[in-house]
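The passage that follows is intended for readers who have already worked through the single-chain material. We present the inputs for a multi-component assembly, then the predicted structure in tokenized form, and finally a short commentary. You are encouraged to pause after the input and sketch how you expect the pieces to fit together before reading on.
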Amino acid sequence: MTSVTTSVPTTVRWVYAFGGGSADGGAQMKDLLGGKGANLAEMSSLGLPVPPGFTITTQACNHFYAQGRSYPADLRGQVDAALKRVEALVGKGFGDAANPLLVSVRSGARASMPGMMDTVLNLGLNDRTVEGLATLAGDRRFAFDSYRRFIQMYSNVVLGLDHHVFEEILDDRKDVLGVAVDTALSADDWRGIVDQYKSEVERELGHPFPQDPQEQLWGAVGAVFDSWMNDRAQFYRRLHDIPEAWGTAVNIQSMVFGNMGDTSATGVAFTRNPSTGENRLYGEFLINAQGEDVVAGIRTPQSLTRASREEMGETSLSMEEAMPTVYEEFRETVGRLERHYRDMQDIEFTVERGRLYMLQTRNGKRTAKAALKVAVDMANEGLISRDEAVLRVDPASLDQLLHPTIDPDAERKVIATGLPASPGAATGKIVFTAEAAEREGAVEPVILVRDETSPEDIRGMDAARGIVTARGGMTSHAAVVARGMGRPCVSGAGELAIDAAAGEMRARGRVWRAGDIITIDGSLGEILAGATAMIEPELSGDFGVLMAWADSVRRLKVRANAETPLDARTARQFGAEGIGLVRTEHMFFDEVRLAAVREMILADDEAGRRAPLERILPMQRGDFVELLKIMDGYPVTFRLLDPPLHEFLPHSEADVAAVAKSTGLDAAKLLRRAAELRETNPMLGHRGCRLGVSYPEIYEMQVRAIIEAACEVAAGGLAAPRPEIMHPLVAKAEEMDFLRALTDRVAKQVMAERGVTIDYSVGAMIELPRAALCADGLARSAEFFSFGTNDLTQTTFGISRDDSGRFLNAYLAKGIFEKDPFVSIDVEGVGALVRLGAERGRAVRPDVKLGICGEHGGDPATIAFCESVGLDYVSCSAYRVPIARLAAAHAALNARKV
Amino acid sequence: MTSVTTSVPTTVRWVYAFGGGSADGGAQMKDLLGGKGANLAEMSSLGLPVPPGFTITTQACNHFYAQGRSYPADLRGQVDAALKRVEALVGKGFGDAANPLLVSVRSGARASMPGMMDTVLNLGLNDRTVEGLATLAGDRRFAFDSYRRFIQMYSNVVLGLDHHVFEEILDDRKDVLGVAVDTALSADDWRGIVDQYKSEVERELGHPFPQDPQEQLWGAVGAVFDSWMNDRAQFYRRLHDIPEAWGTAVNIQSMVFGNMGDTSATGVAFTRNPSTGENRLYGEFLINAQGEDVVAGIRTPQSLTRASREEMGETSLSMEEAMPTVYEEFRETVGRLERHYRDMQDIEFTVERGRLYMLQTRNGKRTAKAALKVAVDMANEGLISRDEAVLRVDPASLDQLLHPTIDPDAERKVIATGLPASPGAATGKIVFTAEAAEREGAVEPVILVRDETSPEDIRGMDAARGIVTARGGMTSHAAVVARGMGRPCVSGAGELAIDAAAGEMRARGRVWRAGDIITIDGSLGEILAGATAMIEPELSGDFGVLMAWADSVRRLKVRANAETPLDARTARQFGAEGIGLVRTEHMFFDEVRLAAVREMILADDEAGRRAPLERILPMQRGDFVELLKIMDGYPVTFRLLDPPLHEFLPHSEADVAAVAKSTGLDAAKLLRRAAELRETNPMLGHRGCRLGVSYPEIYEMQVRAIIEAACEVAAGGLAAPRPEIMHPLVAKAEEMDFLRALTDRVAKQVMAERGVTIDYSVGAMIELPRAALCADGLARSAEFFSFGTNDLTQTTFGISRDDSGRFLNAYLAKGIFEKDPFVSIDVEGVGALVRLGAERGRAVRPDVKLGICGEHGGDPATIAFCESVGLDYVSCSAYRVPIARLAAAHAALNARKV
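Having made your guess, compare it with the prediction:
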């Protein structure tokens, strides 16, 4: 390697122009221009009707934060030049009283963060330009309505005033005038309101509302940059794994108006249905409205197509019917965009006096079901390859498909109906505030019921099992966010009269209170009384096709963690290629066995322990026979007894008395033994293979049960069983040697007794830092390693999962943790140990089989890490097996790219 | 590096001969020949009178164990040849009925393991050769006494019979004959006893006592090899860190007899006094006795020199007086040996009918006091260098010197007196069995009182604070082992009548029972009633000289862990160069402060916490001022609050009620908060810097107290204070960044307020695996790392120190752990993390200061490891500072050698 000198450009380009049939940037420049800016540039270059404007780069944002919130020195000059170009293209002047250019100022990060960031519209209006706008538009009412909107947004976003003060002024004025709706207000009414707004700003801030458009512009740019660090944005980034270092761009674009009368409109569209994936134009629009009106849910929008209107049973005309010429142009344009981007597009548009303007395009968010269908369809249409189709579906999103839906035969006591905003079903207690959802949702399932949701509610939405809103459409905040989170959602259920303060809602003459149980069906848009029977989703059709494509490219095997025959069968049904973790002690909690286990724990010596172990042996063997049969030749990893013995004893005096009475065991002895076994830190106590070393007879019984079970299965003419015997919590090579010798001794004995040879293997669960660090020593006796990343995370971080709740949230909130390390592997620390363990193990035993088990096994980011380390398999809960299969395919495809 | 092919010799030499003025081996071959064998060879080569013999190598022992307890194929031939050489040199035949060669068979490992291994004397005797011996010796009684001794030893050591059966036969016979002492038995009496012994053996084993000398010889060789793995040997090895892989050699040597009448004798000697180090021949001998009689403590031995006899007030003649010619030869010989070996020698010798034989020499074990004096004297005599003198003193042995002794002004209620067998003083409850010592010694101090001790008692001796025996001399088992362990010991206290079964002892007309408190003075040989005032040892003279030499060569700095002014002053007195760990929370347990701390914990919000913190601030500041003053410019590392908050709350309802009553705090709230804060695994819970992140106001107060204290000290005109502010339990770089910012912010504020600049630094306690793995990230904000190896061991191994008692002993017993990892650092695992942490920290911040604190900081093996990693300092408890200083010097000197 030779050292490379980075050449520093003498001037940095902070500003990229677009519009007028050309652009400085393009779709590939998302890192620098943000998604919105890059796509505006791309659309401009494609010759589509984009209002001219320019983008201030994310690099400028990073400079802003790196330099104590100050702008690059040469930014202002570049903005001035770009603004001049816009003025030239649209033939208006920024601040020109007679012919004013108005602009929007919007954030735009590399990844879409809906509703998280702040936007200012109609910027450039002041007491003088508003008159010019009135003249130009020939509509004084429109001009003053725009001005008051501007003052309200700017004051809120840039000046930090609460939007409620403006809403109160407006409501009071309407009361005084005796009107109910905004449309009944005249130009002069709006003018009066503008005056009141300005007075209010001056009263609150001690200085007047800024009249200088340049001051307005730089205030707005600063507010967009500032918004990158607000709480909502930080929380959203954490939820979606978006690095803070990406920064946001600022898009400044000449305004077009969808609210200039009945030949004007504004709308949003998806090139395919984002809920189902159906290949049909889908969306909503509003005539004579500004863009924010559609998503705000204040007016109920209309369909784009006649077919859709008819299906929904709506009476107001669709765009196809109301503006057929513009609709046709729009249809052709969005079709071209989908083919150009080779993906389903989410589009914002405005029609200003019969003229179409494209304001945004981006790859559309979609439900998992839609993602599957779109990916499979597009591959079948030849638009993308099968590998691309596999990569188009987010593995984590499959969770939605694997959730239960309402049993079609179940009785449905419908409380109210709304829009099918996000598919799936959920049951839970009603809560009326995001705070209650956060608090109570941590304990039991809740359904969040709100008039409408806002970005402030996002934590509560995440904590709820489902979301209901009384207002808003299919693209309302609640609907968009719920789909993204995979939560079922019913939006716009206008029948509901919600009184959050009183803690109740009314519908169809009945009252429902906070705490009442309801069920929602997000696929049908229904809210049902009580809990309802659910059924498992059918995993076929597009799912089966895509999973087959995924399986054909992945390298990592996927196994499941399973103890019961039901788990094991579910795992096979979801495509598991073996069991990666049988927690053998789970079978000890059955009542009959528990009595024997307790008798063993109370015994004074080895002989006293052996008698109850003899009774447990045939039961364990029976369980193991069944698991091996279900797995039909796939490997099954049996982890020997792991938890400390006190977990099997009653603790309180009352419990002890009850157990003593029912089992005939000596109460005093039970109590004494429970006290003797009590531990200060059970996580770090007498557990795992330490039990096998202290009481070898326990592990001997378990090894015997496993090998006897395998002999029985082998004798039954089924596929040869492949038991893997795993010793938990190993720390030292000498420990593993001891356990290996114990295992082989018993296995040989059983095989000799039965006259059957079993292809078993012996391995170590690597769940202590020392085991990973000294894996070379362990590998001399261990034929496989399974990384137990749950415990490995606990010990590497010194964090007890049981106790972490008290501080982990503070750590996430302060940004010290980007992600919960118990959900997604900490690559830097825990991952370093996994990598070390794998390398050192292979150094001694090149064919040592390597896998991970535990919660992380079903996490896509962790799976990508496992691919990078070259593990052989991951093992996760049965329901996450499909996610793991797809994530493994992603990991393999992404690894090829590098 | 090129690969080297090891040439395999066609024949391995398993046997090395010695005697007759030459030898195959030498002193440098201890690894192969064991200490005894190597020194016998060396003495032979020096021309000293060594009975001829040969050594079977440790390599043969290792072969024996590696090959399932079988001998190398060519061993027998080599032994036969060596035996022939011995026969030729002494002019006798092995098994020759007329002129029998008798041999001793002794173990001999690389390190001395007194009493741990088995020995057989007089081998070669049978019904025929005993007659030959009788004729040769002209003493039939001697011959049959030797034969019965041989049958007894051989049956016990090789054939596994209990020696009590032989003692019973002897006692019965003496009763029948009406004699009290062995010397009253005639040749025929012994012959009759021999017949009874042989019958008993045949009865017990079903076959006769072996008459074939070859069979006897190989039986004995096998028994010596077997003894390497017996429980006593394993325990001793563990106690003294002797690897099992060393193996033992077997020494076969022609017998000489100290029991052939009054011109024969046997004895042991030290070239200098092993208790005091005084440069004077020291030892004991017995006329007409075999070697075992001296150490067994059955007869009380005589002094070697007249001066010693006179000092001890003995009447029986010294060797110097009884055999002046042989004594003179002996004196010259041992002087020559000391000069040759350049160290104090421990010698065994026998005089057979006026002729001196040297049976063993080795570097003598000695008390710490003696080791110091011998080392300093020899350096001053020019026999060794100062560096060698430093290396001659085992750092761990200094512990003996640092223990308290009895206050000379205290009243001494003497119960009984004995020999001053091992220096130092101790107080404890009387126990009469090793088992009781083990059991009760774990809970409170005990003194083990026995008639005599044997290797089976070694665990009990280790568990006791001091040892008393009624029988045995200065070189009895009790005395040797107690000195090695650093336990005070009074041996041979013949006044005591001990009835262990009844649990009492009598002396001077009084009865003392198990559980009564006594004090022993091992330096004077006194046993005192009750507990007695103790005083600290004076650290001057030889100690001061040697420590100065040590300080001049060591590189590692040594600090102390100290919270109180007393600790801090003690630390300075012992030479600490700063405080490596102030556990700031220790100051919270004072009653007044605890009330404020509890009020803080009960507070509902930050404001509620700040009020009590304000009250704690001046108290903490006051503590810190004092510590900084005592340390007078040396660095002081303040670790901020570490334990979980629940440690400061009462837990049981009764405790809560008491606290509520005395403090006026709300009992219900106390109880609720204690329940809220309870943790499943407190070790891995909400503690360490997690408290500082959750409640920054706590750490802010502590930082303020530290910097304010430093300002106060700086203003007082003392040496500039050097506070180091340490954040515990750090795991992530982002966490350290947050804490660094907090610390600097408060420090800057305080320095501005006071107008003083303090040279403070901010660092991390590295006590989690992740911190070590990601130390590069931490180093961007941390100016120093202190490895907290206590917690690092807990998390690396996943072992809670509080709970490890249940299985750690089983692990030590099974050899899975060689040493307790909480006492001496686990170099392979925990050490690997320390090394990684140091390397990665230095990669980012080359001058990052590195130290370790915690129990390991005073452990010599750990200190050697710290030297190898290049840490800057170690920190340990005040009393271990001298040990650490000397260990650091050893580490530096040993590092130079490599």
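Commentary: The first strand of chain A starts at residue 15 and ends at 18. Residues 226 and 708 of chain A are 67 Å apart (CA to CA). How closely did your sketch match?
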